[in-house]
Amino acid sequence: xxxxxxxxxxxxxxxxxxxxxxxxxxxxxxxxxxxxxxxxxxxxxxxxxxxxxxxxxxxxxxxxxxxxxxxxxxxxxxxxxxxxxxxxxxxxxxxxxxxxxxxxxxxxxxxxxxxxxxxxxxxxxxxxxxxxxxxxxxxxxxxxxxxxxxxxxxxxxxxxxxxxxxxxxxxxxxxxxxxxxxxxxxxxxxxxxxxxxxxxxxxxxxxxxxxxxxxxxxxxxxxxxxxxxxxxxxxxxxxxxxxxxxxxxxxxxxxxxxxxxxxxxxxxxxxxxxxxxxxxxxxxxxxxxxxxxxxxxxxxxxxxxxxxxxxxxxxxxxxxxxxxxxxxxxxxxxxxxxxxxxxxxxxxxxxxxxxxxxxxxxxxxxxxxxxxxxxxxxxxxxxxxxxxxxxxxxxxxxxxxxxxxxxxxxxxxxxxxxxxxxxxxxxxxxxxxxxxxxxxxxxxxxxxxxxxxxxxxxxxxxxxxxxxxxxxxxxxxxxxxxxxxxxxxxxxxxxxxxxxxxxxxxxxxxxxxxxxxxxxxxxxxxxxxxxxxxxxxxxxxxxxxxxxxxxxxxxxxxxxxxxxxxxxxxxxxxxxxxxxxxxxxxxxxxxxxxxxxxxxxxxxxxxxxxxxxxxxxxxxxxxxxxxxxxxxxxxxxxxxxxxxxxxxxxxxxxxxxxxxxxxxxxxxxxxxxxxxxxxxxxxxxxxxxxxxxxxxxxxxxxxxxxxxxxxxxxxxxxxxxxxxxxxxxxxxxxxxxxxxxxxxxxxxxxxxxxxxxxxxxxxxxxxxxxxxxxxxx
Amino acid sequence: xxxxxxxxxxxxxxxxxxxxxxxxxxxxxxxxxxxxxxxxxxxxxxxxxxxxxxxxxxxxxxxxxxxxxxxxxxxxxxxxxxxxxxxxxxxxxxxxxxxxxxxxxxxxxxxxxxxxxxxxxxxxxxxxxxxxxxxxxxxxxxxxxxxxxxxxxxxxxxxxxxxxxxxxxxxxxxxxxxxxxxxxxxxxx
Lengths: 777, 189
Description:
The complex is a heterodimer.
Chain A: H1 3-23, E1 26-28, H2 41-52, E2 58-64, H3 68-83, E3 88-92, H4 100-108, H5 110-113, H6 124-138, H7 143-146, H8 157-164, E4 172-174, E5 177-179, E6 186-192, H9 199-220, E7 226-230, H10 232-266, H11 269-294, E8 296-298, H12 299-303, H13 305-323, H14 328-334, H15 336-354, H16 359-387, H17 400-412, H18 414-430, H19 448-461, E9 468-474, H20 477-496, E10 502-503, H21 513-522, H22 526-536, H23 548-559, H24 573-580, E11 581-584, E12 587-595, H25 607-614, E13 619-623, H26 624-658, H27 661-684, H28 691-716, H29 722-742, H30 748-770
Chain B: H1 2-20, H2 24-33, E1 36-46, E2 54-63, E3 67-74, E4 78-83, E5 86-91, E6 94-99, H3 104-118, H4 121-127, E7 128-135, E8 138-145, H5 148-151, E9 154-162, E10 165-173, E11 178-186
Antiparallel strand pairs in B: 1-2, 1-11, 2-3, 3-4, 4-5, 5-6, 7-8, 8-9, 9-10, 10-11
């Protein structure tokens, strides 16, 4: 077997193995790209909420067009249809009767649910007082509601229950169903059975809503109605679509452009194919490495392939163009060390990202690192064997004179460029407070339009937006509920002081077994209660003999079994309990979302007293917004640190390889100037910098150094011969195309890298030329 | 001759009610002149379940055309505020706000009192058939719901007063219970 055949066989086997891994890889385009790999306890709550919180299952639906009556008809139709489907656990549109099941449940179990049920409540004095209160309430307009219930519930337990529930802003109603604030849209609130993190199921649920809406309008005979859906599920689905379409679009653009460049250079199908070999190997290796290391490959990571193609193709360009007439052996001796050093600086840059707690970033690092490394190794060890010694690249020496001229022009511009960089640095220093985007939303794939639609629907329907929540973890369900009840007592005190408006608790609808037993024990036996009632009601306008239904109901409650999770089935309260009480790998966790005090919109909770009240209890108070901001700041701090570490490693590597401070300085100076100019350019173009721009800065150094090194080599070794010069220009062009394509992306993570590294690579080459030693004639 | 006499009598007959009789339009004009004021009120609710009526009292104030505040002091402090279509009730630290535009039945109910106070005939006739008896100094206006949904809540509303002042409102509910609201104006300078 010839060397070429053996090399090809090894390569082919490796590729097949890689393809098998990729075939079995799991690809994902969900939020977990952004979620911390090593979360703190508070961040874990955030992650859980984003992945499986009830809020992520929320879909807000608006029906537009037609008149109010038509919209209401469609809303009722859609409600009726969706309610029957197993994909949806709750469908609400405000129509009357929809909450009857909840009300019936609360009324039926009021003696086990009401926090007022205590032994004192059923003494003579307790009965007298609570019944007198109910009679007084008849004087109020609210009395209209309680009058029919009075004989069965004279102590007012139902009122006790209802007053604890959210009495906040209810959506507008038109024609008997929920409507937007301006009344021009009918609104529905839907909870999917699938988790928000299950993008496939969310996509399915959204498609179902669309098709059922189409059927509803047809049945209602309304032709001009439209539907708008928003919610985390919609964002997830749209993000995935965006990423999917961009991955193929960007890769196609960059591949085609690079093939065009290569074809222009080689004018040979064989060389073109061989030249793409390291690229294909590299991109495949990148996905394989990520898949094996992380189990899941993010769509954004694959999207980064476009940049990888641009960089990986450099090595084969160097090889073919530079080894031209000299042959492989001489190329290895003369050029490989420089290329190898360039590969190593790139690897150092990408390796820094591996240590990031931001999973997306770590994946990008591993993907690029393995891709670049494999592309270089394939170029070094496989390509020469496959290409043989016979690969005449057409003469590119006609490219050399204009390039040399360019270099000479650049060399004359040293001072202007230094002045320009000083000006750019000054701008950055002056505007340092406005440079950075303050939060994680900078990285979000959600478009501004979609975000605005979501805000509008959310405001129209008054959808929950829980910023603060108390979180409790416990070993089992019962102790979790008991802990929730203890925390509830502290929160009740805060409600009484008006510090918080209210809170939600799973124990409100499913009290702990202990609590239920206690409440049941508070209920006196039938004869005893009848006797006490006689005494209590002697002077009351509500005579005891009219309260026989009350005695019956108490007796019934005393004989009733405990409320279990199953008792809640068929009510929307089941969903409330499930979303607030969750089983985790390490036990049970309870969420108690806090509501701001009633009053003007936008009033926030004064959080310090809440923190103080909960201090020492087993409840952990979490501010979701704060945690989000902190998460982003953690990422940013970490990225700064990693970028610096990566930079220091690159400097150390170059220092060790070049063994001369002067040469090191000559290589680094153009890179640093390029970074400053690019960042100032991005800022002046009106973009706010975020975490990925920072990574882009590191990559300018890591990738750009490849070009500066050739000038260093030229200065120390021999003059830049025409093929070397041409190879540098072409390799730089392909890299700029690869990264530059990412700048077209609407995915912020990719866009930021593209917009920094694309121009950065070109600038690095130009500035390296600018500060290269003038050739002595 | 006889023809001329008949003609005169006819004209006289036409002219007399126009000058002396008191009709809904006249009442509405009088009521609309009242731009607001304060009154003490006493409300008695006669409920079949109870041996005695529930009595509450307090102060009311009205600012034309659509702001009405009812502050109950006895037996429990409670404030009810109707401002345009927003009805809010505050009782023992609990506050409830209802947008009446969402509740057509409640709105019809509220319109009976608001329409009377402001002399808004159109608003009243939207939901009720009006019957007026008495004179300008002592009139009784009866409102009978024309809408079936409202009729399941209230059978009859009887408002009485003198000139532009409403003195009492009686609601007869569909279940036979009734409430009587009496108002005594407080002179304000």
